[in-house]
Design brief:
Blueprint lengths: L9 E2 L5 H32 L4 H8 L2 E2 L8 E2 H26 L6 H29 L14 H11 L5 H25 L6 H19 L5 H18 L4 H10 L12 H25 L6 H7 L3 H28 L3 E2 L5 H10 L5 H10 L4 H27 L2 H12 L16 H38 L1
Parallel strand pairs: 1-4
Antiparallel strand pairs: 2-3
Helix pairs in contact: 1-5, 1-6, 1-10, 3-6, 3-9, 3-10, 4-6, 4-12, 7-8, 7-9, 8-9, 11-15, 12-13, 12-15, 13-15, 14-15
C-alpha cells in the first residue's frame, strides 16, 4: 500500500465561513474606529498648532481623581492609563479567541503569523538600534517602532477603497493580535517602575476573584465593572502599567461556544465593548497624545535627531522587511505554498501597511522618554511621519494590484442562489448545484419566452407591412 501523500498547506488560503464572518465583523468595527482615530489625530494636530495651543495644553494637563488612592491624574494620563485599558481588554479577548478558536489554535497554521510578527518587531528594533548607535542617540526608544496599529491601518484601507481579499485582511488582523501580545509584554517587562508589592498582590487577588466568578457562572455587569475598576486601580499603583490589568481580564474570558450557545461569553462581551474601545477610548487617547507642535524645525529634527530618525526608519523599512522576510522564511521552512490567486508582492504590501504604528507607538514613546519632554515630542512627530510614509507607500503598492483584489473580493461575495452563503463555500454541496441548475433553467426559460415574444411581434409587423 503506497504511503499517503501529504497535501501542502496553503498560506493565505480561503478562510472557513465562520472565521470569515468573524473577521468581517471585527474589521468592520475596527475600520470605523480607525476613521475616528484619524479624525481625532487631525483635530489634535490642528488644535496644538493654532493660537488655541494653550487651551489644548491646559485641558490635557488638567488633574482630577482621588489623590488618597494615588489616582490624581491628568486627562492625558487618564486617557493613556485608563481608556487604553479598555483597548487592551479587547486585545486580550482577541488573543484568547485566536488561541482557542482562530488562526492560532493550529500550531502549524500559527507558525507563519507568529514568526512574521516576531520578525516584524525585531527588525524595527534593530533598525532603530543601529540608527541611534551610528548617530550617538539614546537606545531607550527601541520599542517605539515595533507596534502595529490595526485600526489606523484599516482606516487607510477604508480611505483608499481597496477591497482586500478576506485572507489578506485576516493575516493583517492576526499579525496585529500577536503584535499586541508582544507589545504588552514589552510594556510589562521594560516599562515597569519600582514595584509596590502590596498593591500588586491586591491586583493579583482581584484577578483571582474575577476568574472564580467567571468559572462559577456569575453574571451581571454590576459585579464585574466595579471589580475591574478596583483591579485597574491596584495595578496602576503597583508600578506595573495599568493596561496590563485589561489584558489579563480579557484573557480570562471563555471564548469557546458550548452546546446551544450562539456566542461564547468572550465573543458577547467583545461585541459590547469593542465599539466603546474603537469609537471612544482610542480616539480620545489620540486626541490627547497626538497633539505635537509640527513646525519646520520639528520636521527637520525628525530626520536629524537619531532617535526620531530611528523611529521613522524602523516603521517604514524595519516593519516591511521584517514581516515580509519572516513570512517568506517561515513559508519556505514549513513548506507552505502561497495561495495561487495571490503573489508575494501582495504580502509585501500588507507588510508595508503594518508599518503604521500609532496608538501603542505613541504610548511607548511617552513611557520611554518620560523625563525628556522635547525628545518625547520629536519621537511622537516621528511616529506620525513614519506612519504617514508607510500609509502612502502601502497605498501605492496596493493600488498596483487593486483590480486583482476586486476580482477576488467579488468572487468571495458572489451569491447567485441568494441563500446568504457565498457560492465559493457551497461548490462541493450537491444541493447547491441543484439550486444553481434550477436558477439557470429558469433564466433560460425566461430568455426563450422573451425571444419568442420578440419574434412573434416581428412576424406581425412584417405581415402588416405586406398587407399594406
Amino acid at each position: 500500500m503506497p504511503a499517503p501523500v501529504s497535501t501542502p498547506r496553503k498560506f493565505l488560503g480561503r478562510l472557513s465561513l465562520p472565521e470569515r464572518t468573524f473577521v468581517a465583523n471585527a474589521l468592520r468595527t475596527e475600520t470605523v474606529g480607525g476613521v475616528l482615530l484619524l479624525l481625532a489625530a487631525v483635530i489634535a494636530l490642528i488644535w496644538a498648532n493654532t493660537p488655541l495651543r494653550e487651551s489644548y495644553e491646559a485641558i490635557r494637563s488638567f488633574h482630577f481623581g482621588p489623590a488618597s488612592l494615588g489616582l490624581d491624574l491628568s486627562i492625558q494620563h487618564w486617557a493613556a492609563d485608563g481608556l487604553l485599558a479598555i483597548f487592551f481588554f479587547v486585545a486580550g479577548i482577541e488573543l484568547k479567541r485566536e488561541l482557542v478558536a482562530g488562526e492560532l489554535r493550529d500550531r502549524r497554521a500559527a507558525a507563519l503569523p507568529v514568526i512574521a510578527a516576531i520578525c516584524g518587531m525585531a527588525a524595527p528594533a534593530l533598525v532603530y538600534f543601529v540608527t541611534v548607535t551610528l548617530g550617538g542617540g539614546s537606545a531607550k526608544g527601541w520599542a517605539v517602532p515595533t507596534a502595529t496599529d490595526i485600526a489606523f491601518a484599516l482606516a487607510v484601507l477604508a480611505v483608499i477603497g481597496t477591497s482586500l481579499p478576506s485572507a489578506l485582511r485576516a493575516f493583517l488582523l492576526t499579525l496585529a493580535v500577536v503584535d499586541d501580545l508582544f507589545a504588552i509584554m514589552i510594556i510589562a517587562i521594560f516599562f515597569t517602575s519600582e514595584l509596590n508589592f502590596a498593591a500588586l498582590a491586591g491586583a493579583v487577588i482581584g484577578l483571582v476573584v474575577f476568574r472564580l466568578l467567571l468559572v462559577k457562572g456569575v453574571r451581571g455587569w454590576y459585579v464585574y465593572v466595579p471589580l475591574a475598576l478596583v483591579i485597574w486601580g491596584l495595578m496602576y499603583n503597583s508600578g506595573v502599567h495599568a493596561t496590563i490589568a485589561g489584558v489579563a481580564m480579557g484573557l480570562m474570558l471563555r471564548c469557546t461556544r458550548r452546546e446551544g450557545e450562539k456566542q461564547s461569553p468572550g465573543e458577547h462581551i467583545e461585541h459590547l465593548v469593542r465599539p466603546l474601545s474603537a469609537g471612544l477610548a482610542v480616539p480620545l487617547f489620540a486626541l490627547f497624545s497626538a497633539g505635537v507642535v509640527v513646525s519646520g524645525g520639528a520636521l527637520g529634527r525628525v530626520f536629524t535627531e537619531p532617535e526620531a530618525l530611528g523611529v521613522v526608519l524602523g516603521l517604514v523599512l524595519g516593519k516591511a522587511l521584517g514581516i515580509f522576510g519572516g513570512t517568506w522564511l517561515a513559508a519556505r521552512f514549513t513548506r507552505a505554498e502561497l495561495n495561487d490567486e495571490l503573489a508575494w508582492p501582495d504580502v509585501f504590501a500588507v507588510a508595508t501597511l503594518a508599518g503604521i504604528g500609532f496608538t501603542v507607538s505613541l504610548l511607548i514613546g511617552e513611557l520611554a522618554f518620560a523625563d525628556d519632554a522635547a525628545l518625547t515630542g520629536s519621537v511622537k512627530t516621528a511616529v506620525l511621519v513614519g506612519s504617514l510614509i508607510a500609509a502612502v507607500l502601502a497605498t501605492v503598492l496596493l493600488k498596483l494590484r487593486v483590480r486583482r483584489y476586486q476580482a477576488l473580493y467579488e468572487e468571495e461575495e458572489r451569491d447567485e442562489d441568494q441563500d446568504g452563503i457565498p457560492d465559493v463555500y457551497e461548490q462541493d454541496n450537491p444541493a447547491y448545484h441543484l439550486r444553481m441548475a434550477e436558477i439557470y433553467e429558469r433564466k433560460a426559460a425566461e430568455h426563450r419566452q422573451l425571444a419568442a415574444t420578440a419574434g412573434h411581434g416581428a412576424d406581425r409587423s412584417t405581415d402588416g407591412g405586406v398587407a399594406r
